[in-house]
Design a protein that fits this description.
The protein contains seven helices and 22 strands. The chain is α/β, with parallel strands linked by helices. It has two domains: about 5-110 and about 230-305, 3-Layer(bba) Sandwich (FAD/NAD(P)-binding domain), CATH 3.50.50.60; about 110-225, FAD/NAD(P)-binding domain, CATH 3.50.50. A hairpin with a 4-residue loop joins β18 (about 305-310) and β19 (about 315-320). The chain starts with 6 loop residues before the first strand and ends in a 9-residue tail after the last strand.
Amino acid sequence: MRGTDRLRVLVAGGGVAGMEAVLALRDLAGERVEITLLAPERTFAYRPMAVAVPFARGHVQRLPLAEFARETSARLARGELTAVEPGLARTAEGGAIAFDALLVAVGALSEPAVPGATTWTPELDQEVMGGLLADVEEGYTKRVAFVVPEGAGWPLPAYELALMTAWDARDMGRDDVEVVVCTPEAAPLEMFGAQASASLHEDLDEAGVTIRDAGADRSGWRSIALPRAAARRIAGLPRDERGFVPVDPHGRVEGIEDAWAAGDCTDFPIKQGGLAAQQADAAAAAIAAHAGADVVPGPFSPVLRGVLLTGRGRRWIRRSLETVGDHGEAQRRALWWPPTKVAGAYLAPYLAMHAHGRLPGDERPAGRLVEFPVPVGGPS
């Protein structure tokens, strides 16, 4: 810090990790920090439910970043981070922003990973799936393969798309449509553990969706593939062999004293909003302590949480990635509150309140999720 001045914190990125970090910093450090949010876009688009939009089962929640900045007493700067120098961030627009602490939360890019397949992303969901469902209804498409490529950071949407497509085909009276998921996983959603994988198998069997190896022959199939995450290159930051930013358990960037990173831009292999929020919380706590707040920073201890849209409801799945022997949990009811797909301790309650009107006065989210235990009798 500079004398008695507030710590100048620059949060680069207006996505889940960036917004979670701003909320956490404001709560943990209060007026000890002066926050600037740097983002190229004007609006935050909460996209986890985009997968359900073509099936009329969800919508994309949007929030102007200017409104978010006002409510969190942050300064909003338009621009894209391209380079980091000691105490200075440079943008693609030619701007330069000085900082005492930098939190990089710029996310990742999406790149096609399966030749011959149409690549699905949340941004292209309506276009890709809208066309597919129209062809299924007209009888032009009879065989659909959803492909999880090697290196996909988050496979869950492939299973949601397959399940909802299979059920929609039945509802259209197209009982002759075959739907498969091609995946390199040893078991469906194996990252969530044995319990979730077994539960997903039940949903797939009920919908008539089969599992094939990622290298299976797809000749004659309409193939929709998930993308592979690609790193955003930012000059001045270290990167691993794939271009992602290496960080320690508290989010500090390797070799840089005043820089932290969180979310999909880091070298953590799973790219998922809930984990990005947990990384942001760990980094924000470290920065708050650096600003002099009475905070004991805890390390990033990943707990994987997901809400699977099955086409006939939802399945809640949860697993600690650090606990040895954790086989995961799967339920037909919420395992945490607020019951959002991206379980951010600050962002989830913030967005839940916004969905029902403006955030009241100076009320702020508590900064923790309410976890629900598995009931006596075990998971179902």
